[in-house]
């Protein structure tokens, strides 16, 4: 390994990149890992006490993702500020179809969790600063060329352009950086023709740790409970699907008008909407890369696949993929192979592909099924929702998908510790 400057370079130190770095530090501490991140990082920048913000953005963590973070030794800290999802209510606005999922029916205390992105980032950074993982920040990867048994990666930092050699590059900087295209990967996009508006909202009634998936004639919306896990609160994270014109109109309105329009779309299951925070938005696309690996480089997270957010599957799929990749890296070191060896990365792709295809299909099918407001389609989906409530087998399948327990199971091997399957349980 000494012929390289480092063994593994991770482009991007966000939630996916930082989680991969932590997993490598836990499972393969002998492998030298360097994270290249555009934002500066220093221990002094991490506050001693966490202060949640009303407008903080959040991520839905499936129950299977909790199991992964438990195995990585992060969950005990992370759980201090997560909100459990104990029930999920799925309904079709203006129609009779509905189904309800309850964690107690599956012997768990939660179906999933809602975590503040900033809190997750702080927890990951604190763990990583105590590890052997090296950081190059602020810096960004701008190019890569393949070399014998490895890669040469070109960085831009405060000193200008520099290069590092490594066994493998993992691209974890999302789908908007352009690095994926620079390296020659060809993503496929399906434009849903709509936008996601993201905001935090308050309601007069408590959410009682219930998440809502509401499908309307204008598109789906989701409300995820926020506020910690001790007492049910009145704040939820909103994902609201809107057309271009509806979004433009909404953004020009007052907060009171936004709440009124949201009330009309969602209904009164949480009482009156009393506050809406800062709104952000982005166009909705299903983005996939058919071949996310090649010798020396692999795409992960949103760089490899970006899903519609209303089903809450994107980050959880990425997390399972990261654990699959780490397992293949572990096997590579046992077999004396380079981390970037084509055989290693192809095995990762083969093991992750089924989970990736099934999750993309599950998420995309929900959006397509609940999108058209045509009478025959509406009748079928209403019958389907009622059927889920009446048929235990179908409901269990749906619940396991929502809990992130339907994918291929990756075994996490930690030196000196028990081995455990990361994405299935119970």
UniProtKB/TrEMBL annotation:
InterPro entries: FAD-bd, FAD/NAD-bd_sf, UbiH/COQ6, UbiH/COQ6_monooxygenase
EC number(s) on file: 1.14.13.-
Family annotation (Pfam families): FAD_binding_3 (PF01494)
Gene3D superfamilies according to UniProt: FAD/NAD(P)-binding domain
Keyword Flavoprotein applies: yes
Domain FAD-binding, residue spans: 5-363
Gene Ontology molecular functions: oxidoreductase activity
Keyword Cytoplasm set for record: no
Keywords from the UniProt entry: FAD, Flavoprotein, Monooxygenase, Oxidoreductase
Annotated metabolic or biological route of this protein: Cofactor biosynthesis; ubiquinone biosynthesis
Taxonomic superkingdom: Bacteria
Needed cofactors: FAD
Family named by the database record: Belongs to the UbiH/COQ6 family.
Protein name per UniProt: 2-octaprenyl-6-methoxyphenyl hydroxylase
Species name: Marinobacter qingdaonensis
Gene that encodes it: ubiH
């Amino acid at each position: 390994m000494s012929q390289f400057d480092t063994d593994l370079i991770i482009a991007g130190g966000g939630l996916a990149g930082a989680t991969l770095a932590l997993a490598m530090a836990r499972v393969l501490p002998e492998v030298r890992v360097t994270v290249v991140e555009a934002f500066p990082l220093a221990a002094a920048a991490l506050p001693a006490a966490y202060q949640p913000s009303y407008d903080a953005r959040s991520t839905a963590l499936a129950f299977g993702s909790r199991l992964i973070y438990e195995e990585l030794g992060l969950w005990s800290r992370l759980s201090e500020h997560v909100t459990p999802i104990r029930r999920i209510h799925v309904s079709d606005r203006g129609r009779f179809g509905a189904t309800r999922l309850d964690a107690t029916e599956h012997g768990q205390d939660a179906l999933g969790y809602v975590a503040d992105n900033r809190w997750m980032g702080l927890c990951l950074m604190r763990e990583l600063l105590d590890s052997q993982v090296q950081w190059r920040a602020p810096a960004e990867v701008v190019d890569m060329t393949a070399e014998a048994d490895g890669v040469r990666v070109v960085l831009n930092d405060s000193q200008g352009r520099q290069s590092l050699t490594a066994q493998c590059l993992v691209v974890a900087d999302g789908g908007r950086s352009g690095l994926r295209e620079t390296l020659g990967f060809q993503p496929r996009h399906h434009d849903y023709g709509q936008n996601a508006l993201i905001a935090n909202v308050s309601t007069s009634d408590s959410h009682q740790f219930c998440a809502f998936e509401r499908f309307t004639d204008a598109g789906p919306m989701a409300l995820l409970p926020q506020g910690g896990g001790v007492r049910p609160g009145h704040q939820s994270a909103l994902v609201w699907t809107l057309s271009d014109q509806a979004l433009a109109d909404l953004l020009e309105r007052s907060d009171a008008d936004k709440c009124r329009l949201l009330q009309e779309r969602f209904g009164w299951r949480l009482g009156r909407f009393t506050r809406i925070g800062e709104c952000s938005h982005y166009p909705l696309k299903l983005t996939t890369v058919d071949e996310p690996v090649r010798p020396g480089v692999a795409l992960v997270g949103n760089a490899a696949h970006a899903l519609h957010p209303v089903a809450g599957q994107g980050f959880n799929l990425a997390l399972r993929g990261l654990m699959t990749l780490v397992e293949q890296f572990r096997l590579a070191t046992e077999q004396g192979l380079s981390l970037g060896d084509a055989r290693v990365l192809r095995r990762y792709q083969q093991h992750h592909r089924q989970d990736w295809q099934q999750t993309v299909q599950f998420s995309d099918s929900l959006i397509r099924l609940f999108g058209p407001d045509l009478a025959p389609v509406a009748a079928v989906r209403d019958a389907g929702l009622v059927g889920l409530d009446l048929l235990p087998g179908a409901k269990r399948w749906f619940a396991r998908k929502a809990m992130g327990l339907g994918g291929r199971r990756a075994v996490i091997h930690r030196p000196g510790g028990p081995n455990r399957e990361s994405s299935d349980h119970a």
